[in-house]
Every structure is written in C-alpha cells, then in structure tokens.
Amino acid sequence: MNSNEISVLPTRVDATDSDKARRALAENGAVILTGLPTAPDALVIAAAHLYGQHIRQIFPIRERKSHDGNAVHLHADSFDQVVDIGGVATRRRDPDEDAVLIQCVDPPRSGGDSFLADAYRFVDTCADPDLVDFLTGTDVDLYGAWAGLRGLPATPRVARHVEYTRTGRRILRRTEGAVPLHRDPDTERIHLRLKHFEHTVRQLERELIRFTMAEGDILALDNYRCWHGRDAHTGDRMVRILTLLTAAAR
Predict the structure, then answer these.
(1) Where is the TauD/TfdA-like domain (predicted)?
(2) In the chain, what are the domain boundaries?
C-alpha cells in the first residue's frame, strides 16, 4: 500500500478568505484556517466563513485536554448522543456529522503531530477487495463496543462503513465502537474483518505525512472523506472541537 497516495497535507489559508478556504477543502478534504484568536468563538466564526448559509446544525463545542497523551489513531468523528435538558430531548452529537473543526489551544511540549488520510482514495485504490466488500456490504452496530456509556442510545445504530447520502455524497466511517449486530449469524467473520480493518489502518498511518498545528490554528475537515489522528505527545495539550451538519449532510 502506498501511503503517499492517500496522505493529506492541508493548505494553510486565512480564515477570512472564504473562497480560497472552500476551494482547498473541496480539493483535499481538509484545510488549516489561520488568523483567528484562540477562543471558543473562533470555531463558530470559522464555520460561518467556511460554510455560510449551508450550516444546518452546530453541536456544542468540546474541549480535550491531555497530559503525556497516547497516540490517537485514524478515525472519523461520529457519535450518537441525545440528552434530556429540562424534559426536552436534545441532540449533542450526530452519527452523520459531516464537518469537523479542531482548534489548537495549547500545543504540547513535544510530539503530537497530526496526520490525515483520504478515505475515498483508500477505498478506491489501496484497500484489498475483500475489505472493500466488507466495508460496503456488511451492516454493523457502529457504537456497540461502547454499550452502557451514559447518553448513548440503547437502540443499536445499524449502518455500513461506506454509505451514501440521499444526494449521492459518500460517507467513509471509521470508529473503534463498531461490533457485529447482536446474534448476527456471521459474527465470527465480521469480527475478523473488523480486526483486519483496524490492522490495515494502523499500518497505513505509520507512513502518513505529519504536520504541526500551531497555537490558534483550526483544522477543518470533510468528515465524510478524511480520517484524522495524531502522534503521542509529552506535556500538556489542549484542543477545542466543533462538529456540525451542513446542508449536504445525510
């Protein structure tokens, strides 16, 4: 497998140059937005510049702090979380959120470099036929490995790793929560395929191009197309994350 074919090195663009940022995102599936303050509002401002009137729904900003953190492997952001606020069911995450913005608030002392993979190219040119057949043709429970986690719906979220929106947009899922459906007669084979998928992705990410996020940088991703991860780091690190649905989401 040639990792250079699917490695993504995002262009750095001033966040206020909306046209250039949108072109870079459409071309590569990712762009680094610069020039905004290191503040929670910056993510909302960046989303407004990048997606404008096409924003359908914004979810709550999340902060992620880590000290001497382990590596975060390639994944696409995805979660199904509905909470009760004052007796009203309120969605805080969506399994089909199609846009992710990550701002570097506090870079680590060392390590923590980011890496991206173009999942479309992975499926189209690199993955072996048996794996592609599994990803496109087999239903799994996307979050079954996290059963019992507070806020996660009890009803299994059944989907395939590769699906399409009603307008034909392709979704490439990558989550560590996927398990076979309950009492699926093909459970053993599915377990093996999931392990093969994980092994293939772990091998892939070793050779991907690394890049560094500076304080204030915002990495914007097409969450249907790009998987992202980072290396282990020493010292303290903090990022803020905003996920959203655009008009083109499922």
Answers:
(1) 12-239
(2) 3-246
Cα torsion 10, 12, 14, 15 to 10°: value is 30
> Which amino acid is located at 81 in the chain?
Q
pLDDT of residue 95: 94
Residue type, 20: K
**pTM as predicted:** 0.95
185 and 174 Cβ atoms separated by less than 8 Å: no
Class of domain 3-246: alpha beta
> Residues 143-191: pLDDT tens digits?
999 988 877 777 899 999 999 999 899 999 999 999 999 999 999 999 9
Contact 94, 193 (CB under 8 A): no
CB-based contact 235:108 (threshold 8 Å): yes
Q: Residues 5-23: pLDDT tens digits?
A: 899 999 999 999 999 999 9
In the beta sheet, which residues pair with residue 62?
A: 241
Burial 42-74 (b: 16+ CB within 10 A, else e): bbbbbbebbbeeebeebbeeeeeebeebeebbb
For residues 25 and 50, is the Cβ–Cβ distance under 8 A?
yes
14: three-class secondary structure by DSSP: strand
**Token representation of residue 30:** 């990712």
Spell out the alpha helix ranges (H) of the chain.
18-28, 40-51, 119-121, 129-137, 187-205
